[in-house]
Specification:
Layout lengths: L1 H16 L2 E4 L4 E3 L2 E3 L10 E3 L7 E8 L3 E11 L4 E7 L3 E7 L2 E14 L2 E8 L6 E9 L19 H13 L4 E2 L1 E3 L1 H11 L5 E5 L5 H4 L7 H10 L3 E5 L29 H6 L4 H22 L4 E4 L16 H18 L5 E5 L15 E6 L9 H10 L5 E7 L5 H7 L6 E3 L3 H4 L6 H8 L4 E2 L10
Parallel strand pairs: 12-21, 13-14, 14-15, 15-16, 16-17, 17-18, 18-19, 19-20
Antiparallel strand pairs: 1-11, 2-5, 3-4, 5-10, 6-9, 6-11, 7-8, 7-10
Bound molecules: 2-acetamido-2-deoxy-beta-D-glucopyranose (3 copies).
GO molecular function, one term: mannan endo-1,4-beta-mannosidase activity
Protein name: Mannan endo-1,4-beta-mannosidase
Pfam families: CBM_35 (PF16990), Glyco_hydro_26 (PF02156)
């Protein structure tokens, strides 16, 4: 025992010795100023005044060789939760969450792959309204092998669901599956990029009564069945329109009814009591989409099932009252769909990163995040590392929605092992500003990226 403890202490001190701190007040400042009034900073001050797009700190960093480093930011957050952008060499960027705090706090900003020679790391305004003391860099330790489970949480998971999770496990860390939300956008990829994504993303949105009453109709289940016949993998999200309480005004039309701002539906009171009329309406909606999911089960099609997505963002009503009601609704969904309706073809994909929102390792099959950074093809490594920590590396990790596709070379260099990406619809894939056609062609032809033709027979 003792010698190994001594060795690990020695190891820690060696790593610590390799940590280098770069003071914000000594960097190049754009639109921001040096402050000293909030005590406890390191160096001779900190940087404040992030309040305008374009405000930034640029650190000049030299590295003796090309190497991956762990990057941390020392900050203070007296104005609430904020996001900053951290951009390496004007290329790869990551959105970094700075939780509210009135103490000087160190937060991980993921990893950066420094070039041999000179580099820049820029902290960009994004939400603004935070104080930056310094950044630190330390060479990254080699990533330990993943320890993910490929057994579904549902003990009665059917053979297709089991195969799908097992298949994702075989891909994880070796390749990334390409994915595209919406059948029309997927067809656009086929026509223009010359390859077909491995995963089709579809939506349960237009199957429930509060939307069908206004004329909404969907054929997403039929489209999913067709794509599954072609050997593809299906993921369903659910933009769940509040079952009642839609404002349906010019500003907040009925079709925005999944947004918190478009309804006064209160998830907390609805779930407080199972005899509440609104609880009953929620169950009715779940029963309605169960009918659709059963069609997929009957056809032998497993589903990467991602309800209650982006809950932590609070912009959807299921996240509007904080983590507890959202987690409660997750349990209700699981219980109703699995045990009441006998849906055993679902792989449960959780889609919030914050630990307070996490239902637990026994309640999710995959963890995932949605990230949008226009034109930024970075590896989203800070978010990836947060998801690794969230489930203690026991769950496969997916980029369930992206705007710009991460660059395969960077994914590999950063060991950001997202098992799939799924690009959002319309302009995100075909508009040219989130992803250029050249970039898409290069990416889809990368050996690292798996496409429909390359995954045929995955279920065997
Ligand atoms: C980085 O290296 C360049 C030469 O490559 C040198 O001019 C500069 O002073 C170095 N900067 C730091 C911060 O060490
Ligand atoms: C791997 O994960 C399992 C849970 O799935 C856990 O019990 C075990 O301790 C983990 N092993 C390591 C080396 O982390
Ligand atoms: C159900 O939700 C609607 C819309 O928010 C609300 O007006 C109504 O009071 C709720 N009913 C109950 C019994 O809480």
């Amino acid at each position: 025992m003792f010698p190994s403890i001594a060795r690990s202490l020695l190891f820690i001190s060696l790593v610590a010795a390799q940590t280098v701190t770069y003071q914000a007040e000594s960097a190049t400042l754009t639109g921001v100023t040096v402050g000293t009034s909030v005590a406890g900073f390191t160096g001779t001050g900190y940087v404040e005044g992030f309040d305008t797009e374009g405000d930034s700190i640029t650190f000049a960093i030299n590295s003796t060789k090309s190497q991956l480093y762990d990057l941390h930011v020392i900050y203070n957050g007296p104005y609430g939760d904020k996001y900053t952008n951290v951009v390496l060499n004007n290329l790869a960027g990551s959105q970094v969450f700075l939780p509210a705090t009135t103490a000087w706090t160190t937060v991980s900003a993921g990893q950066v792959l420094l070039n041999a020679g000179s580099n820049t790391i820029q902290i960009q305004n994004n939400w603004g309204w935070y104080l930056i003391d310094a950044i630190t860099l330390a060479p990254s330790a080699e990533r330990a092998p993943h320890n993910v489970t490929t057994t579904p949480i549902n003990p009665n998971a059917n053979a297709p669901a089991k195969s799908l999770l097992k298949y994702l496990g075989s891909v994880y860390g070796k390749n990334i599956l390409s994915g595209q939300q919406d059948p029309a956008s997927l067809e656009w990829v086929t026509q223009n990029v010359g390859k077909t994504p491995a995963i089709l993303g579809v939506d349960m949105m237009d199957y429930t009564e509060s939307r069908m009453a206004y004329g909404a109709r969907s054929t997403d289940v039929e489209k999913a069945l067709e794509f599954a016949k072609r050997g593809g993998i299906i993921t369903f999200v659910w933009h769940w329109g509040a079952p009642t309480g839609l404002y349906d005004t010019a500003e907040q039309p009925w079709y925005s009814g999944f947004y918190t701002r478009a309804t006064d539906f209160n998830i907390e009171t609805a779930l407080a009591d199972t005899t509440n009329a609104n609880y009953t309406l929620l169950i009715k909606d779940i029963d309605t989409i169960a009918v659709q999911l059963l069609k997929l089960q009957d056809a032998g099609v497993p589903v990467l099932w991602r309800p209650l997505h982006e809950a932590e963002g609070a912009w959807f009503w299921w996240g509007a009252k904080g983590p507890e009601p959202a987690k409660k609704l997750w349990d209700i969904l699981y219980e109703r769909l699995t045990n009441h309706h006998g849906l055993n073809n679902l792989i449960w994909v959780w889609n919030s990163v914050n630990a307070d929102w996490y239902p637990g390792n026994d309640k999710v099959d995959l963890v995932s995040a949605d990230t949008y950074a226009q034109g930024d093809h970075g590896p989203i490594s800070a978010t990836y590392n947060n998801l690794l920590a969230l489930a203690d590396d026991t769950k496969i990790i997916a980029a369930a929605e992206v705007g710009s596709v991460p660059d395969p070379a960077q994914l590999q260099a950063y060991q950001a092992d997202w098992v799939y990406f799924c690009v959002w619809t319309g302009e995100y894939i075909d508009g040219g500003s989130w992803n250029s056609l050249d970039f898409l062609k290069e990416t889809y032809n990368s050996e690292y990226v798996l496409t429909l033709d390359e995954i045929q027979g995955w279920a065997d």
